[in-house]
Design goal:
181 residues; elongated
Length: 181
């Protein structure tokens, strides 16, 4: 990608997602200390930025605010009968947060919990018709948001970034499982 293409893409990204810049001090020369070399700093900060942008894009779908709603809708749609503990493990929710999230999703009419026919003490998650319709619309909205938000990355750079983040995710996801149902 040429320097002018990169500059154009960055300008587009800033225009779509204007930051609230400080007005009282000159902030262009702030020293980030060791933070400038920490992957975790950038992961956390970009997570906040992408979450704010995603909330704005999904506000009309009654999903803005909080985390886990989009993952829940899409993972349950793709895995009918998924157990809450398995979902919680993969989206990194503890038991109380998962309970609250499922309660919200049920009361919004997007999903239902059923007793497992195979194991009476276990619950399984299923989307309602309203939830399945939402999942279909949601896939389109979040793909557009993702493309727009990361417009400054080439296709190759996006692929590399996803591969690296997936590698980190897969390394840790099985070492710290969330307690079962």
């Amino acid at each position: 990608m040429s320097a002018s293409d990169l500059a154009r893409r960055r300008a587009e990204a800033r225009r779509r997602n204007p930051g609230k810049t400080p007005k009282t001090i000159a902030y262009q020369h702030i020293d980030f200390d060791v933070l400038d070399s920490l992957v975790g700093f950038y992961v956390r900060t970009v997570n906040l930025l992408v979450s704010q942008d995603l909330d704005a894009h999904t506000e009309s779908l009654s999903l803005a605010g909080g985390t886990g709603k989009i993952s829940t809708i899409l993972m349950v749609d793709s895995n009918p009968g998924l157990r809450p503990s398995v979902l919680a493990h993969f989206i990194r929710k503890d038991r109380s947060a998962m309970t609250k999230l499922l309660w919200q999703m049920e009361h919004a009419g997007f999903l239902e919990q059923r007793i497992s026919p195979a194991e009476r003490r276990a619950r399984e998650l299923y989307l309602t018709r309203k939830g399945r319709e939402l999942a279909k619309r949601l896939r389109q909205v979040i793909k557009e948001q993702d493309d727009d938000f990361f417009v400054m990355l080439s296709k190759e750079e996006r692929s590399i970034l996803i591969r690296l983040l997936r590698k980190v995710y897969e390394t840790y996801i099985d070492t710290k499982p969330v307690a079962g149902d």
